[in-house]
Write a structure and sequence with these properties.
The complex is a heterodimer of chains A (about 400) and B (about 290). Chain A has 13 helices and 16 strands. Chain A is an alpha/beta fold. Chain B is built from eleven helices and eight strands. The chains are: A alpha/beta (about 400), B alpha/beta (about 290).
Chain lengths: ~400, ~290
Amino acid sequence: MKKVLEGSHAVSEAVRLARVQVISAYPITPQTHIVEAISEYCANGTLNARFLCVESEHSAMAAVIGAASSGVRVFTATSSHGLAYMHELLHWTSGARLPIVMADVNRALGPGWNIWLDQTDSLSQRDTGWIQLYCEDGQEVLDTTLQAFRLAESVNLPVMVVLDAFFLSHTYEPVEVPDQEQVDQFLPPLSPRIQLDTANPFAIYQMVAPSAYMEMRYNIQVAMEQVTSRFSEIEDEFEAIFGRKHGPLEAVQCEDAEIILATAGTTASTCRHVIADLRDKGEKVGLLKLKMFRPYPTDQIRRHLGHAQKVAVIDRNFSFGASGIFAQEIKSALCNTDVRPAVFGYVAGLGGRDVTPQTLEEIYRQTKTSKIPKDESVWIELNQELVESWSN
Amino acid sequence: MEQLEIPSDDYINPGHLGCPGCGASIAMKLALKALGEKTIVVIPASCWGVLAAPYPQSSLDVPILHTAFAAAGAAASGIRAALDLRGDTETTVLSWAGDGGTFDIGFQSLSGAVERNEDCLFVCYDNEAYMNTGVQRSSATPFGTQTTTTPGQDWKKTRKKNIVEALAAHRIPYAATANVAFPEDMIRKFQKAKGLKGGSRFIHVLASCPTGWRVPSEMSVKVSRLAVQTNVFPLYEVQDGTTYILNYKGNRGVKDYLQLQGRFKHLTDEQIDQIQIQVDEDWDLLLKKVG
């Protein structure tokens, strides 16, 4: 059934349809609508689950770790500082090989306090062993959240479904909300790998000596290496039932493109319009929408970008002392290939600043007219007057 | 004091990694005798994270979930939620944290859990410092104590946090103190806590630590007993945060307790008198609450 939903509620609907059993969360803007709707479902019996309204994000993740270790399907959601506060337990989740699904609404980190879009919160969790999937619109959010449970439960790794603050979390769009029966067909009840049981006592997540720790880490990587193919199979099954597919990344008019714009999240939607306009004007331009960030789909990145002359990466995030994070990762994916495009890195739209079609056209123009990329990222639409006023 | 038979079943195995005379290992032995096999234990970073043994072993015959230092209250809550959903309301979820994991880094998570009145038994085995990392002070370390972070003349000048009062202030159904030198009393309290299902129960166990307290290992139980006999660590229960029951009245001076322990050996007679005044104050306050 088609419903007009905000992005946050697309997550909540998916959690309801996934028959999640324990949800634990702490309020933080702009994630709050997700858990408000879920607590409503728990309160009115729409969802047979326990909602644990805890006193911090650290506890939210610790609680779902406890619940997942006891054999039930779990979910949590957060943003920004909340995700940073959870950091310790993000490592714990992947180390424990628990199929936990979390939505992160990308939001800037303070100071200064800023509740608007910035991807640095989730990207700075890249080494925690979580699968990360960045979404573009409400439909993709709902579909990806459902797929995330299948994926997490098939490889025993946690999955983070990531959506842009406000541009996606608070934007209402028509979303196809599937029937429960169809979802049940796609997503069977959890069959847990481990389950605390007094009839079969064992210890989990205990101390481990150097003689086994490294092998445990290696096994996480082995599981990560299965993710791309498992995700593809899961998406095929999803498509067979629901008729939709989004892909671990999406190449739009990349085949003959000389310049490819690469970005993640809602900026991809703006890029779609910009490249259509530019194509009308005869420009050979394409878009690579980045969705799966961990594990990194290196082969597919190479395949879609390898033949282009230039790639312009639009990062709404930044790694201080280095560059935009997606640009860094794309460079790393391409560095061992014989034929590769020049990678231009642009930082734009931090802290919720708009990235308009004009912004993207300017990025395209700069890329086209520059012979070689700068080593450092180009910061777009900086107010130089303001920057200089602080240097005095 | 009422005498009970000590259950013969044991759920702790020989070969655990406790130091000789470790009060925390005796505490676990007694606690599990009282709670029985239908128990799931949550252990945050602490001495017991080591005592429970490294992969692939376990020193307990009940399931253990190890969790991060700050997270015991929340992890126990998650297990409880899952068990309830699976229809298992019988199993006791036992959160077993040290003083760091209760008084300090774990306090927020514990306060959150008991405010929600989670159906779990939260235990603090209190050895009055970070013993596992080499005897650093915690907020459970008493006034007058030398530790590796309160060395020499910088011995701890502030008083121990009163954790039972803090927990009782949450108005939980049951809060109590227990001591390994009073096993019948301790087992009775754990059995009582087990039976009070449906809400949060908290038991504060003094866990003598020969290594950190600098006492011979064979003196571990004796020094624990003296803590009660000198009213340094009174045995009492608090029901619903308001009704106080006193289990034992001590009548010895604190010097008897302090002088056995290397961690207090620097104290002058005046300083010991000062501690006596503090202990008397706290004791009088407790008696008023008992009524």
